[in-house]
Design a protein that fits this description.
single chain, about 230 residues, alpha/beta, Rossmann fold, four-stranded antiparallel sheet, about 35% helix, about 25% strand, globular
């Protein structure tokens, strides 16, 4: 059973087609990258796969569960880090973690082994308000909250945007360890060096997947050439 299977997903907002028949799959324990410019349809795809919005057509399963029929069960099986920091800035680090743990009916202690490498880095700031953290620490807190209920599949929408280079490297090292532990991941990123860390990538533009492949050498040039060719073919 695949971690994610999507087929012919479509989504429109008025006259704008955000997704035009998107299909792909993600293997168990795989870090699968989604690469594309702003407005390519990445966030719409994430929101559909995490059951936040409905597709207009097509379908998908995550962890073997249908995104529409099984949405209630599915929400307890996935973790989601949206592109913008979405935790409570007026709550402390500790309070944010406890809030999300309570939401899923778990405790930090229950799943401490999973989040320990991340939590140890933010623990010295556990009494600090989340809104006062640095960019890197905010993302580590968000990842900790997304993992607190031990999800099988993790969705990360541009998780390192606005984060310093050192924190980005640390963040991706954490993701590699999580994948080794069996967590499957769909990650979108605008950064080609991050995309190169994925097992496979899907190149998406204007709501369509142009190519699915292992990250090639000179990925940025490859992506630009592919988009230009795609534009010419239209």
């Amino acid at each position: 059973m695949k971690a994610i299977e999507a087929y012919q997903l479509t989504k429109s907002y008025g006259s704008v087609q955000a997704l035009k028949g998107v299909g792909f799959d993600v293997d168990r324990g795989e870090i699968f990258g989604l690469i594309g410019p702003d407005g390519a349809g990445k966030t719409s795809l994430f929101r559909i796969l995490t059951t936040l919005i409905l597709p207009d057509g097509g379908g998908a399963s995550v962890d073997g569960l249908d995104i529409v029929k099984d949405y209630r069960t599915l929400r307890s099986r996935v973790g989601y880090m949206p592109g913008r920091f979405s935790l409570y800035p007026d709550l402390s680090v500790e309070e944010n973690i406890n809030f999300f743990a309570n939401l899923f009916g778990v405790t930090l202690e229950e799943n401490y082994d999973l989040v320990a490498p991340i939590y140890r880095q933010i623990e010295p700031f556990r009494k600090r308000r989340a809104g006062k953290l640095s960019g890197g620490m905010k993302q580590k807190l968000a990842l900790c909250c997304a993992l607190i209920h031990k999800p099988d599949v993790l969705f990360l929408d541009e998780p390192t945007t606005g984060v310093d280079a050192v924190s980005c490297v640390e963040f991706w090292e954490m993701l590699a360890r999580l994948a080794e532990g069996g967590i499957s991941m769909l990650v979108s990123t605008p950064y080609m060096d991050e995309a190169a860390r994925c097992g496979r990538i899907a190149l998406i533009n204007e709501g369509e997947i142009l190519q699915i492949c292992p990250p090639p050498d000179h990925l940025e040039d490859y992506f630009i050439d592919l988009m230009q060719h795609h534009g010419q073919s239209h």
